[in-house]
Design brief:
- The chain is globular, with a radius of gyration of 22 Å.
- It contains 10 helices and 13 strands.
- The protein is an alpha/beta fold.
- The longest helix is centred in the last third of the chain and has 27 residues, at about 265-290.
- The strands form 2 sheets. Strands 1-2-3-5-4 form a 5-stranded mixed β-barrel. Strands 6-7 form a two-stranded antiparallel sheet.
Amino acid sequence: MQGRIIKALAGFYYVESDGKVYQTRARGNFRKKGQTPYVGDEVDFTAEENSEGYILSIEPRRNSLVRPPIVNIDQAVVIVSAKEPDFNSNLLDRFLVLLEYKRIHPIIYISKMDLLKTDSELNQFQEVYREIGYDFVTSKEALLPLLTGKITVFMGQTGVGKSTLLNTIAPDLQLETGEISDSLGRGRHTTRAVSFYNLNGGKIADTPGFSSLDYEVSTAEELNYAFPEIKEESQACKFRSCTHTHEPACAVKPAVEAGQIARFRFDNYLQFLSEIENRRETYKKTAKKIPK
């Protein structure tokens, strides 16, 4: 049989197939291969009536996120607050870079819109991100249709209202999480369960582990490709390895001056590039100190 893992808990994997959910375990040969099934995995499995099933094989993954481990994601809702804390394009772009690198479609959701004196405060950013091709929404009514038929995860900085949004659009989510935790005798936020929940014709994941960001992009080339508008303009650069900092005949810097690339986006790119280069220098210095 074939299906998708929708929950992992205490060594059990719950596989959905043709509308039914089967409780399974992983075969021992997965450990020998160094493989671990994750929520979102498409698997072949066996299941007999009234007995535990077994996962036999895992299909190749399209993408993956680490905390918590979830794979084969269609899109991610990045929640950024308008106020308290103030809108932060630098933090937003860090999430977007990660998602571009993972080939996961981003949806930008702005919370706490009621704290703005006027919506025009965000108009500049909305226009820029929509022009790039990102969904940019400011209400749950605009968000819900985007979830239909998709596997979606939610991520955001602590304090931006992620829990409030999830509990508003999926009231059962809090209840189910609490039930799982109570059955294990643990606090609500300490359960090791990772689960998909059905919502609006799609599946969403409760992802408390995304309050901080693991920055996985490690080269200038990867960073270039993680900014779609910079990637497009960079095709006209004289050098393929152009970092858009000091190289002659760069096509990106003139595009910034002409307003074709937003200045704040380019500034964020330059900051991330500097961080990547500093990490590489630190790694080189550390490597030299290690005795051979």
